[in-house]
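Example for tutorial group B:
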């Protein structure tokens, strides 16, 4: 099939590349001219394991190309995916202006039947609005179908997630697009679930909010563990062995962040409100997450007494491991908090330093994680990059003015850290 993807970000680029890999002809469109130029020159605008190789292979095979002209991409496609951002507004509801703009742009160049697939995460009933907008701006000249196909990939394992999904959710309003959607996803060997459009839209928000809830749940339990002298890791392991609960997303930490969970959670709360339901449970999830950061900052200030004038080394800036994405990163929020409290910062991230430079100022950027501790009063682990487990602890202990580590991701064993001579403060242990 011929496919175009409007919005070549974390989701759009992976989606387009994986469809090309499964044999389709894909045009990735983006309004950001610099991004398209970079892609056309063979560069990759994001860090995502395995993506550069796959893009290169499919471009070379003539199945994948890039443009910033929406008409150019849309006119030659059977399927058009919308994968633009859906950022939060100050009141928590979703800013749908990018989706609306793309809908108008698509409408203006429709000349024959197309399937328009929304892959952006949107509140329930957005599909109706997209269809209404396209009908209005194309002046009813051509037939089209709107489909909802929410994306569940995780940054850091996006290719694997896309190629081997747990499930594919496809929301449709008529039978006409069903065959093409079945054919599109056939190579991925995953259960394809057809629903109505509203259910598909709700599945995505309900799923992400549930995952955020699971994290806040274990974070709340971590508070009890600290108060009672239990170990949250042992509690999570014991809970997680029950298959009805599962061990995933039961890692206590300084809180969740990123470009999806916080905004999807607030969007789901706002949507519920507009549908007449006060989703108090999810408001508590947000509150626990905010408090978790407060508690971590307090742990640091309690131990250091005065932060003003101290130098702290922060390991990790991305919102999670294996990505360079710093949008809504708890690590960046923590850096800002510490700077506001007068601390000087030395920071390191294996992949996110370039993107972090756009949101973090007046810090010392350290390329080698083993040099971070030099001149520092304490180290802070803010992102769970697996390579941090290989930190040269002996060297760090010698470099720190006092051997103190605050671990917001529970990477190390407290008993072992004590044996090595550290004052080691982690979460829920
Ligand atoms: N990032 C994730 O892990 C993830 C996972 C699942 C779902 N989602 C959802 O997917 C959507 C996209 O997320 P993302 O992280 O890829 O966002 P992103 O910001 O990385 O990418 C969006 C892209 O759309 C482009 N764009 C905006 N307006 C445009 C227009 N009119 N025409 C062409 N291009 C335009 C932007 O320049 C940008 O490159 C969001 O709704 C998000 O919630 C994201």
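The residue assignment follows.
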């Amino acid at each position: 099939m011929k496919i175009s993807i409007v919005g070549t970000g974390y989701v759009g680029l992976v989606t387009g590349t994986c469809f090309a890999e499964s044999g389709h002809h894909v045009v990735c469109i983006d309004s950001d001219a610099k991004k398209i130029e970079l892609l056309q020159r063979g560069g990759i605008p994001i860090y995502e394991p395995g993506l550069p190789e796959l893009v290169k292979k499919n471009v070379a095979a003539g199945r994948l190309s890039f443009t910033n002209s929406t008409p150019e991409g849309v006119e030659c496609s059977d399927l058009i995916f919308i994968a633009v951002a859906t950022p939060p507004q100050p009141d928590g509801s979703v800013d749908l202006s990018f989706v609306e703009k793309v809908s108008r742009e698509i409408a203006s160049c429709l000349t024959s039947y197309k399937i328009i697939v929304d892959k952006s995460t949107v509140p329930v009933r957005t599909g109706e609005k997209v269809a209404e907008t396209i009908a209005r701006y194309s002046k009813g000249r051509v037939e089209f179908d709107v489909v909802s196909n929410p994306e569940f990939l995780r940054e850091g394992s996006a290719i694997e997630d896309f190629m081997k999904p747990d499930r594919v959710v496809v929301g449709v309003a008529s039978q006409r697009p069903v065959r093409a959607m079945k054919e599109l996803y056939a190579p991925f060997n995953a259960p394809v679930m057809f629903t109505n459009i509203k259910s598909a839209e709700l599945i995505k928000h309900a799923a992400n909010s549930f995952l955020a809830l699971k994290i806040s749940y274990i974070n709340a339990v971590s508070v009890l563990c600290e108060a009672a002298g239990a170990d949250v890791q042992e509690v999570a392991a014991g809970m997680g062995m029950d298959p009805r609960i599962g061990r995933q997303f039961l890692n206590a930490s300084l809180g969740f962040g990123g470009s999806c969970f916080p905004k999807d959670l607030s969007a789901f709360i706002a949507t519920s409100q507009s549908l007449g339901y006060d989703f108090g449970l999810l408001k508590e999830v947000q509150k626990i997450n905010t408090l978790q950061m407060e508690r971590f900052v307090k742990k640091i200030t309690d131990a250091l007494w005065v932060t003003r004038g101290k130098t702290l080394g922060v390991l990790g800036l991305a919102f999670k491991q294996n990505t360079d994405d710093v949008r809504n990163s708890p690590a960046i929020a923590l850096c800002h908090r510490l700077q506001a409290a007068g601390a000087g910062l030395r920071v390191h991230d294996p992949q996110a330093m370039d993107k972090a430079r756009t949101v973090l100022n007046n810090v010392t950027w350290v390329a080698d994680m083993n040099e971070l501790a030099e001149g520092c009063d304490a180290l802070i682990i803010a992102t769970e990059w697996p390579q941090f487990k290989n930190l040269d602890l002996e060297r760090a202990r010698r470099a720190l003015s006092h051997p103190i580590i605050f671990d917001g991701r529970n990477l190390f064993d407290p008993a072992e850290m004590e044996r090595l001579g550290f004052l080691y403060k982690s979460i829920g242990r």
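The mean pLDDT is 97. Compare this with the pattern of hydrophobic and polar residues in the output above.
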